[in-house]
C-alpha cells in the first residue's frame, strides 16, 4: 500500500482560510467515504478532527471542514488561529487496511 | 471518557521481538469499538500498524503482517502488540487508539511509547 500524497507544507495568516489536499487512488480515497483527518502538535498524540470525509467529532470547531472529490480529499481550516499551527495527516480506509498521508505542516504566519 | 496508556520495553535489540501493551480505562474493551496501533518514527509521519475488534478479528498492515500479532485481553482490559524480527526501521513512537466504529477513525489516543531498536 502506498501513502496518500499531501503537500509537505501550507501556510496562512490569522483569519485566512487554508486548504490541505490529500491524494489517493482508486484503492482508497476514491472508493470509500472513510477519510479521516488528524491534527498533531509537537510531542503530542494525534487528535481526530474530521471523520467519514465531512463529520466533526464533538468539541472540534466548525472552522475545520472536510470534503472529497474523486481520489482527492481536502481539509479546510477557516479563520486561522495561532493554535492551528500543527501537523495535519489524512487517512483513508483501503479495503482491509488503512493508509496515512505523509503529513502537512501548517504554519500560521 | 476512555483513556489509553501504552507501555513497552523502551529498548529492543535487533532481530528481537518487541511487546507493547495498551491498558484501557473508563470503559470496557468489549464494546463496539475497534482498537488500533499506529507508529511514528522520530521526525516522520504516521504509519498504520493494525487493528483489532473485541471478538479478536484483526486487520494488519500488509507490510508488517508476517511479523505482527495484535491481541485483546478482556480480563485485563488491554490490547497487545508483538512485532518480531525488529530492525532499526521499527524505531518509533507507538500509539494505541480507539475508534467508535471501524470506519470512524481514532477518536481517543494514548500518549504513545517510544521504542528504540539498537544493540
Note down, in words, how this protein is organized.
With 109 residues, chain A is an all-beta fold. Chain A contains no helices and 9 strands. With 119 residues, chain B is an all-beta fold. In chain B, 0% of the residues lie in helices and 50% in strands. Chain B contains no helices and 11 strands. In chain B, strands 2, 4, 5, 6, 9, 10 and 11 form a 7-stranded mixed β-sheet that branches. In chain B, strands 1-3-8-7 form a 4-stranded antiparallel β-sheet, with no helix packed on it. Chain B is globular. The model of chain B has no long low-confidence stretch (mean pLDDT 95). Classes of the chains: A mainly beta (109), B mainly beta (119). Chains A and B meet through strand 3, strand 7 and strand 8 of A and strand 5 of B.
Helix content of chain B: under 10%
Kindly state the number of beta strands of chain B: 11
Largest interface: A-B, 26 and 23 residues
Uncertain segments of chain B of ≥5 residues (pLDDT<50)?
none
Summarize the structure.
The complex is a heterodimer of chains A (109) and B (119). With 109 residues, chain A is mainly β.
Please supply descriptive tags for the structure shown above.
heterodimer; A: 109 residues; mainly beta; 6-stranded mixed beta sheet; 3-stranded antiparallel beta sheet; 44% strand; B: 119 residues; 7-stranded mixed beta sheet; 4-stranded antiparallel beta sheet; 11 strands; 50% strand; globular
Mind sketching the topology for me?
The complex is a heterodimer of chains A (109) and B (119).
Chain A: E1 9-12, E2 18-23, E3 35-40, E4 47-50, E5 64-69, E6 72-77, E7 86-93, E8 98-100, E9 104-108
Parallel strand pairs in A: 1-9
Antiparallel strand pairs in A: 2-6, 3-4, 3-7, 5-6, 7-8, 7-9
Chain B: E1 3-7, E2 11-12, E3 18-25, E4 34-40, E5 47-53, E6 58-60, E7 68-73, E8 78-83, E9 92-99, E10 108-109, E11 113-117
Parallel strand pairs in B: 2-11
Antiparallel strand pairs in B: 1-3, 3-8, 4-5, 4-9, 5-6, 7-8, 9-10, 9-11
Amino acid at each position: 500500500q502506498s501513502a496518500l500524497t499531501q503537500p509537505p507544507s501550507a501556510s496562512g495568516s490569522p483569519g485566512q482560510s487554508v486548504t490541505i489536499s490529500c491524494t489517493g487512488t482508486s484503492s482508497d480515497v476514491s472508493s470509500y467515504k472513510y477519510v479521516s483527518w488528524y491534527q498533531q502538535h509537537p510531542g503530542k498524540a494525534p487528535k481526530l478532527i474530521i471523520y467519514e470525509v465531512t463529520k466533526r467529532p464533538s468539541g472540534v470547531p466548525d472552522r475545520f471542514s472536510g470534503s472529497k472529490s474523486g481520489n482527492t480529499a481536502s481539509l479546510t481550516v477557516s479563520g486561522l488561529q495561532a493554535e492551528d499551527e500543527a501537523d495535519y495527516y489524512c487517512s483513508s480506509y483501503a479495503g482491509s487496511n488503512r493508509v496515512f498521508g505523509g503529513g502537512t505542516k501548517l504554519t500560521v504566519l | 471518557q476512555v483513556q489509553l496508556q501504552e507501555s513497552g520495553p523502551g529498548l529492543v535489540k535487533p532481530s528481537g521481538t518487541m511487546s507493547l501493551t495498551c491498558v484501557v480505562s473508563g470503559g470496557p474493551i468489549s464494546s463496539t469499538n475497534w482498537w488500533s496501533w499506529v507508529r511514528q518514527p522520530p521526525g516522520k509521519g504516521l504509519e498504520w500498524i493494525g487493528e483489532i475488534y473485541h471478538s479478536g478479528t484483526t486487520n494488519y498492515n500488509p507490510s508488517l503482517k508476517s511479523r505482527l500479532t495484535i491481541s485483546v485481553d478482556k480480563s485485563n482490559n488491554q490490547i497487545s502488540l508483538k512485532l518480531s524480527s525488529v530492525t532499526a526501521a521499527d524505531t518509533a513512537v507507538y500509539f494505541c487508539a480507539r475508534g467508535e466504529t471501524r470506519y470512524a477513525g481514532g477518536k481517543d489516543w494514548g500518549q504513545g511509547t517510544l521504542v528504540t531498536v539498537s544493540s
